[in-house]
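Chapter review: from sequence to fold.
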Amino acid sequence: MRFFYIARGSLNETLSAFVAANAVGYVDDTQLKWVRDVELEAEKSLNGYIAFIRKQKQGESEYGSRQINENPVEYRPGISIEED
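The token string follows.
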């Protein structure tokens, strides 16, 4: 299960790289749209497979019995961090 979660994160990172490449002119809007469409389809497939594996209870003893959640980070623009 952990591998699937990492793969999903990698999909999002790849899309982010293409968005950044588009912003600086390395990738045109048509290419970015294609990448977004492919990423969305891959993510849907991956999410479906994750749901299937969870239903089958495969790997539950290793990793699948709980979800990964990170503590949210509070972002406050305009607040500077000062060193002591």
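Two observations follow directly from the output. The chain has a mean pLDDT of 81. The CA atoms of residues 2 and 67 lie 9 Å apart.
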